[in-house]
């Protein structure tokens, strides 16, 4: 019987170019909701899957994790509509906060990475 080549499973993801990263399109993860606070912040609610194993059987499906974003985070999350690319969001941020484009790019990249790690957004690479 032939062996399957599973060597690709342990390899790190191929890094994408800066150009491709700026062209990628972030979207809110299905099931994630957010609500404006009176002070310009946003409360994000992220659905949490029940745990695995015996104890997971007793957990309810309706668990959520909450994250509160400051006004800058709120501005960025409101830009994410599934149509705007990262470059568009960087431009809007740089304009809104009168910042250097390169600084805005680095700030937005780190913030989007954080949102991705928290399962708040997904990013599609063109």
Would you write up a description of this structure?
With 126 residues, the protein is an alpha+beta fold. The protein has a single domain (18-124), classed as Outer Surface Protein A, domain 3, CATH 3.90.930.60. It is 34% helix and 19% strand. The chain has helices spanning 18-23, 71-79, 86-96, 101-117, and strands spanning 25-28, 33-36, 42-47, 64-69, 121-124. A 3-stranded antiparallel β-sheet has the order 2-3-4. β2 (33-36) and β3 (42-47) form a beta hairpin. α3 (86-96) packs across α4. The longest helix has 17 residues, at 101-117. The radius of gyration is 18 Å and the shape is globular. It starts with 17 loop residues before the first helix and ends with a strand. Mean pLDDT is 85; it is low at 1-8.
Care to give the gist of this entry?
The chain is α+β, with helices and mostly antiparallel strands.
Task: Give the strand line-up of the largest sheet.
Answer: 2-3-4
Helix-residue proportion = 25-40%
Stated plainly, the CATH topology is called Outer Surface Protein A, domain 3
Number of domains: 1
Can you count the beta strands?
5
Continuous helix count? 4
- Spans of at least 5 consecutive residues whose pLDDT stays below 50 are 1-8
Query: Could you name the CATH class?
Result: Alpha Beta
Silhouette: globular
> Which value, in Å, is the CA radius of gyration?
18 Å
